[in-house]
Description:
By secondary structure, the protein is α+β, with helices and mostly antiparallel strands. It is built from three helices and seven strands; from the N terminus they run H-E-E-E-E-H-H-E-E-E. Strand 5 (about 90-95) and strand 6 (about 100-115) form a beta hairpin.
Amino acid sequence: VAAAERRAAKRARSASPVEVEGRGAKRRTGKESLLDALFVNHAEVEGAPDFVYSLGGADAGGAEADRILGEVESDQTMIRLTSQFSGCRRIVLFSTGRHGVKAVAAAVIELHLGGASTGGVLEVP
């Protein structure tokens, strides 16, 4: 377990954190997270052929995910993954039915690593 955690930490350090384009070059925002090594865009959901998911930064899921998160959370720092939520990431579930790809669920998640005996905890703040 410890070796797997070390490998995940190494991948997270080499993965690109959330980037925002400004006037000049891209600048990095947010804290690094072990979840960065798992970033994916429209990956298939095993056993559910009509669904895909994305895991990423504040832009994951775009405006549709913003709308979904805004329906249950009014704190813009959580939706935009800033301030105390800068170490969090967004996971978004999409339906791929006859009406095209549409976001149907979204959550902000944060990974907390514990000791060797407890492993980690995935929190939805």
